[in-house]
Write a structure and sequence with these properties.
Family: Belongs to the methyltransferase superfamily.
Structural class: alpha/beta
Distance between the termini: 21 Å
Number of strands: 7
GO molecular function: S-adenosylmethionine-dependent methyltransferase activity
Shape: globular
Oligomer: single chain
Strand content: 15-25%
Strand order of the largest sheet: 3-2-1-4-5-7-6
Number of helices: 11
CATH topology: Rossmann fold
Keywords: Membrane, Methyltransferase, Transferase, Transmembrane, Transmembrane helix
Helix content: 40-55%
Protein name: Methyltransferase domain-containing protein
Order of helices and strands: HHHEHEHEEHEHHEHHHE
CATH architecture: 3-Layer(aba) Sandwich
Largest sheet: 7 strands, mixed
Length: 270
């Protein structure tokens, strides 16, 4: 299964995939700084959220949203990958769903914490999402959450996720919403102060195009509205069925007020 082919600061914001990357940041400097941050999170933290660079309330909201979507959509049995697994929050959930799971992360301290506190049924492996060491068409599903904001672009990661999934398999990926009004305001303030972006925003149009151009079909968008941790007591409002209906059927609402979004796509059966 494993191929020999050679060939997150706390929960906040980053620049849209539609926009050119900040010229002050090379791929090496931006992504290397994030790798160092993630290693620091793992060394200095014990709880899942802090290890992954999220607030506790933010990670819980993300997991609840994913579980809600998962229960609505039939999933494939077999082998699943959790790319950018962090402390293994989502890996543990997949194991509960009777999936075989490999958790990948490029931070060795993070994997050590995941192995120490996580389920022994997960195989933990060190790897970079830009070159997943798994053969083409070899897994039944893959999730990649909390990763794209720490990358210079999303092209390679989407291509890699689509590559490793076999026909009929599923790809789940999330990103920070670049068109969310608070994020746009943050980007404007940083631009005005001459400060580079510390995270990268994305456009949902961009991710959809990438998934489709890499051969995925039935690509579906799910908005992920999340209140800042200081206002977490209001989070239940946006998780009600009524508000979820509004976010689903009034696209502009999700575009302007959702902190993040999730996409799910499938490799077509040949």
């Amino acid at each position: 299964m494993i191929s020999n082919n050679k060939s997150k600061e706390k929960e906040t914001t980053g620049v849209s995939g539609q926009y050119p990357p900040d010229k002050k940041l090379s791929q090496n400097s931006f992504e290397k700084k994030w790798r160092k941050r993630f290693e620091g999170f793992a060394v200095n933290s014990e709880d899942d959220a802090a290890i992954a660079g999220w607030s506790s309330t933010g990670l819980k909201a993300r997991l609840r949203h994913f579980v809600h979507l998962w229960k609505r959509i039939p999933s494939n049995d077999g082998l699943w990958l959790d790319i950018g697994c962090g402390a293994g929050t989502y890996s543990a959930f997949l194991v509960e769903q009777n999936k075989s799971v490999i958790g990948f992360d490029y931070s060795l301290p993070t994997l050590q914490k995941a192995r120490k506190k996580g389920t022994g049924l997960v195989c933990w492996c060190a790897a970079d999402v830009n070159k997943i060491p798994v053969k083409r068409n070899s897994v039944d599903g893959v999730i990649c959450f909390g990763v794209t904001q720490a990358l210079v672009n999303s092209e390679t990661v989407v291509s890699e996720l689509a590559r490793v999934v076999r026909p009929g398999g599923q790809v789940w990926i999330d990103a920070l919403n670049g068109w969310c009004l608070p994020h746009l305001w943050e980007a404007l303030l940083r631009w005005a102060r001459g400060r580079p972006m510390h995270l990268r925003y994305e456009s949902h149009h961009h991710i959809r195009r990438l998934m489709q151009s890499n051969g995925l079909e039935n690509v579906e968008l799910y908005w992920l509205p999340i209140f800042p941790s200081r206002y977490h007591r209001f989070q239940w409002i946006v998780e009600t069925s009524t508000m979820q209906w509004f976010f689903c059927y009034i696209p502009l609402l999700g575009t302007l007020f959702s902190h993040a979004f999730i996409f799910r796509g499938e490799r077509p059966l040949k």
